[in-house]
Hints:
Blueprint: E1 2-7, H1 10-19, E2 23-26, H2 39-48, E3 53-56, H3 68-84, E4 89-92, H4 103-113, E5 118-121, H5 131-138, E6 147-150, H6 161-170, E7 177-180, H7 189-196, E8 200-203, E9 208-209, E10 212-213, H8 215-224
Amino acid sequence: MLIEIIATNINEAIQIEKFGGGRVELIDSFSDGGLSPNLELSKAVADAVSIPVNVMVRPHARNFCYDHNDWRIIESEIDYLLSNTKINGVVFGVLDDKGKIDTKGLERMIRLVDGKGEITFHRAIDESIDPVLAFKELQNYGRAISNVLSSGGMPTAIEGRFNLRKMQDIKLADGAKLLPGSGVNPSNALDLVSYLNVEQLHIGTGVRKDNLLHEVLFRSLLQVV
């Protein structure tokens, strides 16, 4: 079972590896659901740990629609991350103004990454008008998209488990893997994994106490999954 944990700084990333996490998602601004972190921080984090580091690429928190100016920022971030850091991949999502996947935007991102790192389509999918259909559409991109982070269109993965199960049932062998996340913690992780039959989990606040990573919660989580 691969456990991906959110980090916001280098010390947290080091703790995640030390405590047994399998992958880091590096973000800025927990309160906004994750924004692009500082680029130099991204480099430092990727240098500091041996586990994979995926970096959020999200220029603003208004929505998941991006205009010309937003794309200039996105392209600059991707260029830096792929040229100057050891990151494993990027975490990105894009919708159109009708709440569907912006296929042109997504394909633009795939061209930018050009196979030099993984792409995780993040919880923008949960803001789409039909998350299950959106997941099915993402399967059409094969291995160009590695993971889809989702709570099944609900506030938490437990609440969205029925949609997540539908996603898992339609997943193609060579398509993006489902990465359930939101509200996952040591007390519900085993039930979620058993119900969905997934091989990875995404966790943010579920292993934190007073906004700090907590080793006891980590150990509890790893014992059950």
